[in-house]
């Protein structure tokens, strides 16, 4: 007999565990349940993005799938349910899928957060936080003695990515900061936190000059790549608690 769980109970657990009601976020993040199903969950599928590929994969997995994502479906704002938004929602309703999104609450979490998990993969012990969003620090930083080239190779291996390096700092890294995703605008804050090297997902063109003129290494390891760890850890945690199977739908964007 297949194990089932209550969507309402799962959502309440996730909301509480991630402190969804307390962590500030962008208006269109809409953390928590974004689309509900008939109320029963049979399995969990984790994905970084709630786009057409992940929705189709969840539909193929069968009714009662909870799609657990970092980026939900409402980033483009309060729009009519037409076009691709209609197609996304139609897929979920037709296949009895539920959608749960966790953006900044997942990034900053002390146990399953993208930042702390990437730090762990790199062997960095977190000593502090930096990079404020509405008064809440997003990133983590700490001592990590490693050659810059070795750090890049480690990131490429651990995240299955091809990092871009703005080599403005020393070739031997000693203090590394991490903010996953698109945090290229936090270079100065990483420097102020004592970092000689800053790892994030992506940034703007002008950050090349920021890195070189401020004297800090900036490593762009990919927005998708740096944010794939948290949803997997969260899905594994929820699956264990509610005795459900889970999978990860890996769909790299290359960005």
Structure write-up:
This protein has a six-stranded mixed sheet with strand order 7-8-10-11-12-9, with helices on both faces. The termini are far apart. Helices cover 36% and strands 26% of the residues. With 255 residues, it is α/β, with parallel strands linked by helices. The mean pLDDT is 97. The radius of gyration is 19 Å and the shape is elongated. The chain is built from ten helices and 13 strands.
Tell me the distance between the termini.
41 Å
Query: Helical proportion?
Result: 25-40%
Class by alpha and beta content: alpha/beta
Q: Label the overall shape.
A: elongated
Unreliable stretches (pLDDT < 50, length at least 5) are: none
Q: What kind of oligomer do you see?
A: single chain
Task: Work out the radius of gyration.
Answer: 19 Å
User: H/E order of the elements?
Assistant: EHEEEHEHEHHEEHEEHEHEHHE
Supply the number of helical segments.
Answer: 10
